[in-house]
Amino acid sequence: MDKIEHRIVSTNGINLHVAEIGSGPPVLLLHGFPELWYSWRHQMVSLASSGYRAIAPDLRGYGDSDSPPSVDSYTVHHIVGDLVGLLSALKVDQPVFLVGHDWGAIVAWIFTLFRPDLIKALVNISVPFVPRDPSIKPVTALRDIFGDQFYICTFQEAGATEELFAKVPTDKFIKSILLSRNPKPPRFTKDRIQALLDAPNQTQMPSWLTEEDVQYFAGKFDKSGFTGGLNYYRAIDKSWELFAPWGGAKVKVPTKFIVGDLDLTYNMPGAKEYINGDGFKEHVPYMQEVIVLEDAGHFVNQEKHQEITAHILDFIAKF
Prior knowledge:
Layout: E1 5-11, E2 14-21, E3 26-30, H1 41-49, E4 53-57, H2 76-89, E5 96-101, H3 103-114, E6 119-125, H4 138-146, H5 151-154, H6 160-166, H7 170-178, H8 190-198, H9 211-224, H10 227-234, H11 236-242, E7 255-260, H12 271-276, H13 278-283, E8 287-293, H14 300-303, H15 305-316
Parallel strand pairs: 3-4, 3-5, 5-6, 6-7, 7-8
Antiparallel strand pairs: 1-2, 2-4
């Protein structure tokens, strides 16, 4: 970990913090919510020791990267633009191996559609590729299925979610998210926040997450706040509008997909049938492997970091 280098890179009109270690074929790792480059700490060290150049930015709105104030600055188009500029600034002169988790997986899917020439192969975790439905906006569709208290719907109101989050100590909040193994659709309500406040502090930590890890995440979010990350959800409908020209496009890079059997995304209505059936592969025709890890939750890249690292290394070695 002490060999990981950090720098600030100017790209796409903002500054991004990026962590980097190793030399060789580049591997670009994209984190999710509420996470940071730090989510890939285990994979970065292993990739470097295996002869790869591991690159993990704090995406815009997170950690030590800039957080533009406008919600409309958080479309997937902006995020992919940041990454294209980042690779140029780092003088990456060859296609990268791309790895994404959660929101990072969503960005990675779109990256492959926008710039397949920059991607050699893709390992995506937790969130499958779902084609654009031209008939309904995403937030409206989610509200119709899950109701107003579904977390993505709750997150839409600027300021309100931040006020709820602020009621709970950040380290306690981070633990509650990272350690959750409840596969039911998550809801963020005042009652849930009150339950967190009333719950005793969790001192018994699993082997994959230390108190030091939690304090790193909490310290960065105490500094930056959660608005940047929440704005990804608030820009979903705007991304949907801008994504119209790519309606029906398919992901045409070699792909491996990994998900935990307790992941909330895997337990959404119809998700298991889609991921394990022909539908997923129809939209990702170069899919080579779909892996469902047993007894694994949403933050599987941390929880099962040894297995995830092995899967990444095994797949990218083929290319």
